């Protein structure tokens, strides 16, 4: 595989981690309990937090054809605290964000009350949020972002060696947008 085709396959990683960074910033803006005066701002906060978790996790889960995934062990190396935080976030992705399993955020209770002639069921859905997860995820996103940037630099240097001249990266679409 040439350095250029390898570089192309990593652009998706950069996009995913940029999305995660955007969503975690939004979650931080909304993540103040004094703003949670109704269910709507709570849902908005959790929506951004879940999106940040999902975008971050996509960098590590199985990738589609022509795409690469990251290995946590190569990023966090001997930093066991970061590796443990990464595992917590990935577990959160698997049990709460992507699937409906037991998790640290939500509890459901049904309390039964017998009355003459009827049974009353009191339903309660409780949400709690350990803000440590928000700060851990923000830190992990930043570390992964730096790792991806370092990888990109290495690939650009390899492309320059392959083609024998400097390479300049231009972000965005320079063509006019068209709808076909």
Q: What's the N-to-C terminus distance?
A: 33 Å
The total beta strand count reads 2
Query: What does the largest sheet look like?
Result: 2 strands, antiparallel
**How would you state the average pLDDT, rounded?**
88
Radius of gyration: 22 Å
| Portion in strands | 5-15%
* Unreliable stretches: none
Estimate the global geometry from the Cα principal axes: elongated
Features:
single chain, 180 residues, mainly alpha, two-stranded antiparallel sheet
Walkthrough of the structure:
- The chain is mainly alpha-helical.
- The protein has five helices and two strands; from the N terminus they run H-H-H-H-E-E-H.
- The protein has a two-stranded antiparallel ribbon.
- The two termini are 33 Å apart.
- The mean pLDDT is 88.
Quick summary:
By secondary structure, the chain is mainly α. It has helices at 3-30, 39-58, 72-76, 80-97, 131-163, and strands at 106-115, 118-127.
SSE map:
Blueprint: H1 3-30, H2 39-58, H3 72-76, H4 80-97, E1 106-115, E2 118-127, H5 131-163
